[in-house]
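Hi D.,

Good news: the full-assembly prediction came through. Inputs first.
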Amino acid sequence: MDNNLGYLFAAFGITWLAIAVYLLYLGQQVRALRDEVESLDDER
Amino acid sequence: MSESRAGQTARARKSDLKVQALGAVTVAVLTIGIFMAFVYAPMDSVQGQAQRIFYVHVPMAWLSYLAFGVIFVGSVGYLWKRNMRWDRLARSGAELGFLFTTLVLITGSLWGRPIWNTFWTWDARLTTTLILWFIYLGYFMIRSYAADAERGARYAAVLGIIGAVDVPIIHLSVQWWRTLHPQPVVLNTGGPNLPNEMLWTLLVCFTGFTLLFVYLLIQKIRIEVVRDRLADREMDALLAPQPAALARAGEVSGGSEA
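Then the structure:
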């Protein structure tokens, strides 16, 4: 029972990796929207 | 006009600072939580190291409920007021709910393998949580398949209200049915049933992940606000008469008058 460190690190690792990927995804959305706003401003 | 714009910019900057401060506090609390989970909390004598998964799994489960609470409030608000502000709240909550429900299923499976000797079993708690995951999935499918955004928001709001019924069922499933899943150790009638070090670690992780949820929700809502405004601007541009068409119309009407 004591030798379950692999499962423990997998659970913490996957959780933090998923949260990091989600934060990157949000950042990508912000960049895409900023580009769109700039292109609309240029069209004016 | 320029004063009001300056006021708006100052307000936006102040709001940005508050969100950044929230982000900093969240990182600090979560760092303390991880430290406590690995160092401060004692190892469980029966479950061994795998028990420490509890410090991420339980907060993830709470956030999957909280996210559906956000969807429920947003859905009721949208159907009542027909204001996109409520719909933005609901759809932002749905994205976070999907993320945290996926994580609760994964971390639960990783705990189940060493403790139950299986990654998955059709236990009442696990099955009702999987149903919640499918409800989240259906929520996104309804939105993407709807003919227009307004209709998608309406259908999704109905699912958001009906789907919320699953949350109390998940929570009470361990009392209603015979299940393998452990009984509540914090919210039970006799008070918390775990050592103080474990209880404090859980409370810090709970606080950290709840702050993370609020931070992510604010960021997601901000993105959705800009996206909706851009969609409105694009729609206005499409509906506005084109200069060339106006000129042609002017020529035609001028010609007919001559």
